[in-house]
UniProtKB/TrEMBL annotation:
The keyword Oxidoreductase applies. It comes from the Bacteria. It is an enzyme of class 1 (oxidoreductase). One of its GO terms (biological process) is fatty acid beta-oxidation. Residues 15-193, 322-499 form the 3-hydroxyacyl-CoA dehydrogenase NAD binding domain. This is 3-hydroxybutyryl-CoA dehydrogenase. Belongs to the 3-hydroxyacyl-CoA dehydrogenase family. Keywords: Oxidoreductase. Its EC number is 1.1.1.157. Pathway: Lipid metabolism; butanoate metabolism. Residues 196-292, 502-598 form the 3-hydroxyacyl-CoA dehydrogenase C-terminal domain.
Length: 601
């Protein structure tokens, strides 16, 4: 059973009214009742109130079946909840939590009526995630008792609660609801009043950019979603998440954010308006970016946009051997992946010693896999035997596919491609692993630009399943087909994208990271609160500042500059705080200090 962390009888907030009994209001009522609070659920619809009670009965019954609750627990929880269609039922509440539709008019009317019903000391909380808490408070006769209490859906499962203060909010009210959130087993994060607060403020900008990327036909909905799941470890892709949230809801949140920020990254993508006005609002309607089995069903079904099974109709070129140029972590990881896939691999570095060191690194990686039971000793030995280290690119003469993984410097890569052009046999596919540079610039350094393509692996290459396959306007169809087939053989998930800065993952990830830095720079929220908000409220495996310090602040700044230079959007300009930290040599974990300090190795 979800038990409160302290004795609920010691809290000043004993009786709590929840106004609005939709999915969120019902979830909040359940959390409160399980934590020992008396709950008054209020909704203008009798049917909705009855639906709330039925949902509570069903969820507590599941709790008993799973042995998380006893029958007595269940009876006590249900006895603590009563419902009404009249706001007067909130008269004895110590706290009222309003979760009505996202409309100033609706919410202001509720607050005005509550002013005449509740006691002077009662706290009034709005569950809005898009509207101004200050504006709602200013219309109340007790603005010092009004604040935001933003739960995340589903409320019983999601641990994050954003406690939102306006300039009018009394500190005592903030303390009382923060203590309540802790009693509920939640993690409260204190934030100021701006549209989207922390979690949604960062999340919805990212979702909006994903919608715009799809609308521009840069990549398919399936590839955008797969890229962000596999490249960033997210539980859902952005377009599937928009369908879950509701396309209309996302549009409302973004419009509120744009009205406040005038940041073009928050201006709702036109496709959100088009889908909303067509009634294609996502799962709840049975169709949004995807088509579902039925309204409210999570089951996606085929539609006219679903890719055909079997992939490309173009035959690829035969690939038996692969050359990997480079000796760093990425080059070693890519060579290991190809060797595990059964390919003969030549790894070439600037010297024989560096190439031998790269092979030794691969040997240690394979040994770790053996120790963990992921690979047999025999398979590891066979894999290592397929790798030939060399100090000259001349040994790429017979490879069918050459993949470069050298420094992220365009001139260095262009010189390498010019060398590969002379060494590699006709018909060999030449690939770059660049994450931010134009693939076509590498292609133009050769006499065969039609044979050049991007294969953006993610670090660590043996573990990460994603490869972004980047076609230029000059790439031949059979070269694209070849790389797709190779990705299948090495057990990677290939996503297609065009040759523009950031491809899919970095183009969506780094503006989100940059916006998080701006929040800290503006003293809106702390590093720890932002990281907690995105882990707990957004399902991210790491908070933005944890991730920035792992990636490296210098790498992050370089990618931000490339994105800003290509898209010319002022909202993509690197945050000055990031530039200052890089200038000071604070590059993240690798230097012992970035946004946080780390113990020296």
């Amino acid at each position: 059973m979800a038990t409160p962390l302290s004795d609920p009888s010691q809290s000043p907030l004993q009786t709590i009214a929840v106004v609005g009994l939709g999915t969120m209001g019902t979830g909040i009522a359940e959390v409160l009742a399980k934590a020992g609070r008396e709950v008054v659920g209020i909704d203008i619809s009798e049917a909705q109130a009855a639906k709330c009670v039925a949902a509570l009965e069903a969820s507590t019954a599941r709790g008993v079946e799973r042995e998380r609750l006893t029958e007595q627990d269940r009876a006590d929880i249900l006895a603590r909840v009563r419902t009404s269609t009249d706001l007067e039922a909130a008269a004895d509440a110590d706290l009222v939590i309003e979760v009505a539709p996202e409309s100033y008019e609706v919410k202001q009317q509720i607050f005005r009526e509550l002013d005449g019903i509740v006691r002077p000391e009662t706290i009034l909380a709005t569950g809005t995630n898009a509207l101004s808490v200050t504006r709602l408070a200013a219309d109340s006769s007790r603005p010092e008792r009004v604040l935001g209490l933003h739960f995340f859906n589903p409320a019983p499962a999601m641990r994050l609660v954003e406690v939102v203060s306006s300039v009018l909010t009394a500190p005592a009210a903030v303390t009382a609801v923060t203590d309540l959130a802790l009693d509920l087993g939640k993690e409260p994060v204190a934030v100021g009043d701006r549209p989207g607060f922390v979690a949604d403020g960062l999340l919805f900008g990212y979702l909006n950019q994903a919608a715009a990327m799809y609308e521009a036909k840069y990549a398919s909905r399936e590839d955008i979603d797969a890229a962000m799941r596999l490249g960033c470890g997210l539980p859902m892709g952005p377009l599937a998440l928009l369908d879950l949230i509701g396309v209309d809801t996302a549009r409302t949140v973004l419009e509120a954010m744009y009205a406040a920020s005038r940041d073009r990254l928050h201006a709702p993508a036109p496709i959100l308006k088009q889908l909303s006005e067509a009634g294609l609002t996502g799962r709840k309607a049975g169709r949004g970016f995807y088509t579902y089995e039925a309204p409210d069903s999570p089951v996606v079904v085929r539609d006219a946009l679903t890719p055909l099974e079997g992939g490309s109709l173009t035959a690829g070129r035969e690939v038996r051997s692969v050359g990997v140029a480079g000796s760093g972590t990425m080059a070693s990881g890519i060579a290991e992946v190809f060797a595990k896939g059964g390919y003969e691999v030549v790894i070439a570095a600037r010297s024989e010693e560096k190439a031998q060191a790269a092979k030794a690194r691969i040997g240690k990686s394979l040994a770790r896999s053996v120790d963990k039971g992921r690979l047999t000793a025999e398979a590891a030995a066979q894999t290592l035997d397929r790798i030939t280290p060399t100090g000259t690119y001349d040994d790429f003469a017979d490879v069918d596919l050459a993949v470069e993984a050298v420094a992220e410097d365009l001139e260095v890569k262009r010189q390498l491609f010019a060398a590969l052009d002379k060494v590699c046999k006709p018909g060999a596919v030449l690939a770059t692993t660049t994450s931010s540079l134009p693939v076509v610039a590498c292609a133009r350094a050769t006499s065969r630009p039609q044979d050049v393509i991007g294969m953006h692996f993610f670090n660590p290459a043996p573990a990460m399943k994603l490869v972004e396959v980047v076609r230029t306007v000059l790439t031949a169809d059979d070269v694209h087909a070849t790389v797709r087939e190779v990705c299948g053989r090495i057990r990677k998930h290939a996503v297609d994208c065009g040759d523009r800065a950031g491809f899919i993952v970095n183009a969506l990830l780094f503006p989100y990271l940059n916006n998080a830095i701006k929040m800290v720079q503006e003293h809106y929220a702390s590093l720890d609160d932002i990281d907690a908000a995105m882990r707990l409220g957004g399902g991210y495996p790491m908070g933005p500042f944890e991730l920035l310090d792992v990636v490296g602040l210098d790498v992050s700044l370089a990618i931000e500059k490339v994105l800003h230079r290509e898209f010319r959007d002022p909202g993509l300009a690197p945050a000055p705080l990031l530039e200052h930290l890089v200038a000071a040599g604070c590059l993240g974990r690798k230097t012992g200090r970035g946004f946080r300090e780390y113990a020296k190795r």
